[in-house]
Amino acid sequence: MNRESLSFGRRSFLRLWKSPVTINLLRPPGAVSEEIFATKCIRCGRCIEVCPYKTIFAMDARSGVWAGTPFVKVDRVPCYLCMKCVKVCPTGTLRPIKQEAVRMGVAVVDRYLCITWRGETLCRTCYNVCPFKDKAIRLDELRPVVVPEHCTGCGMCVHACPMTDKGLGATEGTKKAINCYPNL
């Protein structure tokens, strides 16, 4: 076995253990820490089945040890915080928690992409759709400001945001003017 194939093998192996959770790709509400998520989740799919908004999906086989574990792609379908998923989780991987205490991630406004922050026009979309308006997101001189201590990471703001790095008219997979970053 030559050195190059051994090196490639190690990188591939390590990639299998790297968490797939990233910008706008988060765990459902009440999730245990990512360090123990893959070992605690039995991949039963109950959380996926019970979600009335079809927000929760399962990681595919390319995700290595994370395959079959639930995730929420907030730019595609946000979490509406109905909390039904935590009630059906048999292992406690998704723990019962109050809506206000959910911390799936935290929204961050990109002031270079946000048309309100750039002074082009007044847009209050992210503010208007936030379930914790004036607490998790507030307006400072009519510009959106996220309060990280109160942001649940539900992604309603991300989903509703009309501005992407490709311009107006959001398409899946592009960075938006507001994005949710996971709590890792």
UniProtKB/TrEMBL annotation:
Source organism superkingdom: Bacteria
Protein name: Periplasmic nitrate reductase, subunit NapG
Transmembrane segment boundaries: none
Pfam families given in the database record: Fer4_10 (PF13237), Fer4_7 (PF12838)
Keywords: 4Fe-4S, Iron, Iron-sulfur, Metal-binding
A Gene Ontology molecular function term of the record: metal ion binding
CDD domains linked: DMSOR_beta_like
Signal peptide, first to last residue: none
InterPro entries the record matches: 4Fe4S_Fe-S-bd, 4Fe4S_Fe_S_CS, Fe-S_Ferredoxin
Domain 4Fe-4S ferredoxin-type, chain residue ranges per copy: 32-62, 70-99, 142-173
Source species: Dissulfuribacter thermophilus
